[in-house]
Specification:
Length: about 250
Amino acid sequence: KQWYQRRVAITAGRMPKVKKVKKTPAVPAFNAAKSSKKTSNPLIEKRSKNFSIGGDIQPKRDLRRFVKWPKYIRLQRQRKTLYQRLKVPPSVNQFTQTLDKQTATNLFKLLKKYKPETAAEKKDRLKSMADSGKTEAGKKPTVVKFGLNHVTALVEKKKAQLVVIAHDVDPIELVVWMPALCRKMNIPYCIVKGKARLGQVVHKKTAAVLAITSVKAEDKNALNNLVSSVTTNYNDRFDEIRKTWGGGK
């Protein structure tokens, strides 16, 4: 025990003494205390909001994620997602290749000139014929033809000069064969957006297909320009379109 105490005393004597350094506080910057302290206006009273039940109105948030959307909106969103993820066959994928904006504008300008008469206009025409005592209907007016069966018959008889198909027909099976029929009968066709816009031309909610059979002499040049543009974009690209798959992203 004495030996251990002697060893500790010798070891303690050899250890260098560590000087304790006193830390002096840093000198504060000029007006640091004044700048850190916020000045409050005594005339304005602080009113913190209370968002509990019966309290303040909650702030507006983006709740679209939590909305229960109508079924038709959910279906069209799901369809869009499926068309992106699954491999889409060329016969269905061709309906994504719609007419460019400039050509479509010119097409609808021409279609609006040949709108069919409304029910009210037809009533007035028949009434005026009855008042005048005419029995003959006279020459048929030049109008746009619509209706899937009617347009199909016109294409088969080669009476249609231009066929316009909507890109968003549901179910797509109604018109999926129409481009192939037009190519077989060598009739120009095009695909446009969308069925509601075509419906406006013929005074309906929607229209799947329209056909132009004839136009007036002053509009023949405009129709020829459209036919040449449409033939280049659709009829002449048959081999490319029938091999182009979609989706699979």
